[in-house]
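Justification of resources, computational component.

The compute hours requested in this renewal are based largely on the per-chain cost of generating structure records like the one below. Each record pairs the submitted sequence with a full structure-token output. That output is archived, and it is also reused by downstream analysis tasks.
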Amino acid sequence: MHPQITPQILLRAYAAGVFPMAQSRHDRAIYWMDPKFRGILPIGGLHLSRSLRRKLRAEPFEIRVNTDFEGVLQGCADRPETWINAQIHDLYMALHHEGHAHSLETWAEGRLVGGIYGVTLGAAFFGESMFSRRRDASKVALAHLMARLAQGGYTLFDTQFVTDHLIGMGAREIPREEYRRLLARSMTRQADPFAQFAPLSGEEAIHWSSQTS
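The structure output for this chain reads:
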């Protein structure tokens, strides 16, 4: 970790619209990103396919919060190309221990099979990465995460960039200036503590995650 980067500096960077990345897991440097266009998922506006709705109703996974944050972090980094290097890992573990970074996890047969992690600040959730070891495990995690954000009064779900996968689920790309206006408003509000949300059924996750879609 570069000596002057601390969890507190990282939180200030998020509040200003900047986030860190490394070029690869072996790159020791951290680069601050401030893209011209930013990806967001409208709160409560997730697009759920019929098959995903059926999967959510069937409840094939146990949904947990913050029971294996490091496992989710490692799962997200377990791919041929990743921007999560050792310094990024340590920074987000520190944020997690301070209560600012959280994981939404999907479990099956006592094993972690998918999840998503990110940072909360004000009424914003800054999504960092997600992974899946079972079919639809990350999509189910995303739906439950969105439901928790909608239920808890969050106003911004930052995805940093957009992919075809995220666009298909309702993500859109907005100019940096519009993103900063949304971010500034979310920083003036306070959402419910992420980790204190009650467990949701699959039907409740569908309602809260896609109520405006």
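The mean pLDDT is 92. The CA atoms of residues 100 and 120 lie 5 Å apart.
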